[in-house]
Each structure stands twice: as structure tokens, then as C-alpha cells.
């Protein structure tokens, strides 16, 4: 493979390293759900034993970095109840991104979907409802019927959708999660952990528009019609804790009261998961205390925005020169407030097995954040435009230009 960087690219790398010398305790990238998970700095602080005292397990995570700020029995497999719908919503958002479904498309409700018990929006067999409204039904009211209707539309059957859920769990590296349905209704070996729920939520929150749904406190379906249905969010913290805009509650007799919550305050987004609380009051109290702890003790500093140009891709055999290479996701630092933290540097490592043509978004390298020769994080670098092979005239012209330069 040819040397794809000119001297100016190395200058950019050096300047980037100097520019982002900063204090850090943990740095990582906000990963796209389809990307391989990189090493996370899961340095939890369990000295505050009063946190999550009512819950069997819990975790507190900063979203961009994946840094674990607190954990309690975070790897204990437990029934997740309707928090299962975090994965269901993740597959829905992926399908919307891939345009295999659209928000305004109407879905005909099957007998199977309409027959679901538990939390529901009372869909009737043969009724048609838009994907947008069904998604509201899942995100706000935790509708089991809406979840299955969407599962059937996306995968063709509920069974195939569950297979997709487990495939996605494996892709995300969720070793202690196994799904039997898209709803969270009780089933043997339908389990997850607080840590896996937080990782799932990081993947879901990559789709920023999801909080437009999970952050709704109340709304209507079929508004103005005879069968109008009032949606009220099962996550009361959306209304009563400033900054909370998701994600999913859960309850069954076996699972007890569970909640995966997310909040964004001062540009820092956190994820708090509690499982197995005895009452909704205790569940909400545990989550509120975790969020208080996060925002009282920690802060973040962004390094790169998603899509920010880091260097250029200048390849003699390509039809375009100086194509921007950009970060595929945001990169941040999270650290304790008022604490001096060590300097870091960034470095670019380009892949050596890249071949033309390249489509926009193709991974061509990694941005590494390094502290004392230890790689703290990696995020994918992608090309910002399509690139094809240069034609004969382009090659000839560039060869001459290279010769005279």
C-alpha cells in the first residue's frame, strides 16, 4: 500500500497531540452500535456504600466515555422486565436509520400483537398505526403490544426479532444477557445485568432522536378519535428530575422495580441502572441519588465532536485528493471536579490494508488517546466522501505534479 499521508498530515497529527494535551482520568469514544467495543476504563467507586441501597444491583456510567462511576453487583444476571425494550428500541432505531422502515409508515396490527397482556396501548387486531406512534407507545407507555407489532414489521416475526436481539447483544459484547421476547414479559433465561443494560443504553443513545420519544411525559395516541389513548410516561423522573429524558422502566413480580435512566446536564450525559428495588419510590430514590452523585462529583471535557476532521486522506490513485478523515463518534474526558489530572496526547494510526473504491463512512484508521504509552481509547476514523480509482488522466497529472514538487 502506498504511503497515504503527505508531510502535512504528520504535522496535523503532531499539532493534534499538542492541542489536546489535557488532564484526564478516563477517556474513550462514544461508540457506534455497529463498532467493535474497545477497552473501557471501568474504574468504579464503591466507597459510597449508601448509593443504590434499595436495589439488588446498580451501575452509574458516563455515556461518552463508558467510565463507570459507581457499581453494585453490576454483573449479576437478573430479569430486566420491560427494560428489555432498550434493545427493542435499539433495533427499531437501526431499522429507521437503514430506511427499512419509516416513521410515517402504517403497520397493520396482528392478532399476536393485540393479544399481549401487561403494559399495553390496547391495540386491536387489524388496526393500523404509524411506526412513529407505535414507537411512542413503546418508549412512553412501555406497550408490549406496540413492541411486538414493531418486531413483526422489522423482522417478519417475533421469533426472528428475538434472534436479532440476541445477535445484537453478542455484537455489543453483552456476555450476561439473553432475550426470549421483545417485551420483558417473564420467561426462563430472559436475563441481563446492570452493566449490560448500561452498554445497551450507550448504543441506543447514539441515536440522539430517541430521547424525543423517551423524554415525553404525556401525549395522546389516536387523538380526537373515539378510541383516543392517553400516554403517561412510566418513568416519572422525566417530569421530576431536571435533565432526565429516558430511558425505560421495568416491573414484574420476579424482577421487582427496575429502571434504566439517562440524564444530560452541563453537556455531560449519564446512564443510571437499578434492578430489583421493592417499590417505585425506592427505585426512583436510588436513581436520583446516583444522578446527584454523578453531577456533584464529576464533569466532562469534550476533545472531538462526531464528524470532526482530524487529518486528510491524500492518495495518488484516488479520484479525489485531500478528502477529510473524520471522527466517527465524539471523544470526551470525564474527571472528578477540582482534581488535577494527567496530560494526554492523541495519535493517528491509519490502516494499511485499505483499497479503492471507498464509500463515505469507511473506516480507514483509528484515533488513539494515550497516557504514558497506555492506550486509553480508540475511535474509528472514517472518510467523509466516496472515493474511486483515479482515471488515466488524473494519474498522469498527479504523477507530473508529484515529480515537480
UniProtKB/TrEMBL annotation:
Pathway: Cell wall biogenesis; peptidoglycan biosynthesis. SUPFAM superfamilies: beta-lactamase/transpeptidase-like, Penicillin-binding protein associated domain. Residues 31-54 are annotated as: Disordered. Residues 298-389 form the Peptidase S11 D-Ala-D-Ala carboxypeptidase A C-terminal domain. Residues 1-29 form the signal peptide. It catalyses: Preferential cleavage: (Ac)2-L-Lys-D-Ala-|-D-Ala. Also transpeptidation of peptidyl-alanyl moieties that are N-acyl substituents of D-alanine. Substrate binds at residue 248. Its EC number is 3.4.16.4. It comes from the Bacteria. Transmembrane segments: none annotated. Pfam families: PBP5_C (PF07943), Peptidase_S11 (PF00768). GO terms for molecular function: serine-type D-Ala-D-Ala carboxypeptidase activity. The active site is at 82 (acyl-ester intermediate), 85 (proton acceptor), 142. One of its GO terms (biological process) is proteolysis. Keywords: Carboxypeptidase, Cell shape, Cell wall biogenesis/degradation, Hydrolase, Peptidoglycan synthesis, Protease, Signal. Belongs to the peptidase S11 family. This is serine-type D-Ala-D-Ala carboxypeptidase. It comes from Gracilibacillus halophilus YIM-C55.5.
Amino acid at each position: 500500500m502506498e504511503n497515504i499521508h503527505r508531510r502535512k498530515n504528520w504535522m496535523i497529527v503532531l499539532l493534534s497531540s499538542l492541542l489536546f494535551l489535557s488532564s484526564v482520568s478516563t477517556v474513550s469514544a462514544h461508540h457506534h452500535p455497529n463498532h467493535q467495543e474497545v477497552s473501557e476504563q471501568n474504574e468504579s467507586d464503591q466507597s459510597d456504600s449508601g448509593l443504590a441501597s434499595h436495589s439488588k444491583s446498580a451501575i452509574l456510567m458516563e455515556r461518552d466515555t463508558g467510565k463507570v462511576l459507581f457499581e453494585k453487583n453490576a454483573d449479576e444476571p437478573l430479569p430486566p422486565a420491560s427494560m428489555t425494550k432498550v434493545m427493542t428500541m435499539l433495533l427499531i432505531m437501526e431499522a429507521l436509520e437503514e430506511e427499512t422502515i419509516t416513521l410515517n409508515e402504517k403497520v397493520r396490527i396482528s392478532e399476536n400483537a393485540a393479544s399481549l397482556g401487561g403494559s399495553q396501548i390496547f391495540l386491536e387486531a387489524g388496526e393500523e398505526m404509524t411506526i412513529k406512534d407505535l414507537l411512542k407507545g413503546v418508549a412512553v407507555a412501555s406497550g408490549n403490544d406496540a413492541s411486538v407489532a414493531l418486531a413483526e414489521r422489522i423482522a417478519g416475526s417475533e421469533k426472528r426479532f428475538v434472534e436479532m436481539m440476541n445477535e445484537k447483544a453478542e455484537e455489543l459484547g453483552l456476555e450476561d444477557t439473553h432475550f426470549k421476547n421483545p417485551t420483558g414479559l417473564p420467561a426462563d433465561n430472559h436475563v441481563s445485568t446492570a452493566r449490560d443494560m448500561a452498554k445497551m443504553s450507550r448504543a441506543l443513545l447514539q441515536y440522539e432522536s430517541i430521547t424525543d420519544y423517551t423524554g415525553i411525559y404525556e401525549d395522546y395516541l389516536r387523538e380526537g378519535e373515539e378510541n383516543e389513548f392517553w400516554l403517561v410516561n412510566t418513568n416519572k423522573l422525566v417530569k421530576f428530575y431536571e435533565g432526565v429524558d429516558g430511558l425505560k422502566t421495568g416491573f414484574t413480580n420476579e424482577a421487582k422495580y427496575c429502571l434504566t435512566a439517562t440524564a444530560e446536564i452541563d453537556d455531560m450525559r449519564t446512564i443510571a441502572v437499578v434492578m430489583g428495588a421493592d417499590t417505585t419510590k425506592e427505585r426512583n430514590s436510588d436513581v436520583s441519588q446516583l444522578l446527584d452523585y454523578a453531577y456533584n462529583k464529576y464533569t466532562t471535557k469534550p476533545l472531538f465532536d462526531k464528524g470532526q476532521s482530524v487529518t486528510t486522506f491524500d492518495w495518488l490513485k484516488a479520484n479525489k485528493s485531500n478528502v477529510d478523515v473524520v471522527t466517527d463518534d465524539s471523544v470526551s474526558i470525564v474527571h472528578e471536579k477540582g482534581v488535577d489530572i494527567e496530560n494526554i496526547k492523541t495519535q493517528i494510526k491509519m490502516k494499511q490494508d485499505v483499497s479503492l473504491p471507498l464509500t463515505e463512512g469507511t473506516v480507514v484508521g483509528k484515533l488513539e488517546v494515550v497516557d504514558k504509552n497506555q492506550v486509553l481509547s480508540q475511535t474509528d476514523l472514517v472518510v467523509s466522501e466516496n472515493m474511486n480509482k483515479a482515471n488515466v488522466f488524473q494519474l498522469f497529472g498527479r504523477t507530473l505534479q508529484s515529480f515537480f514538487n
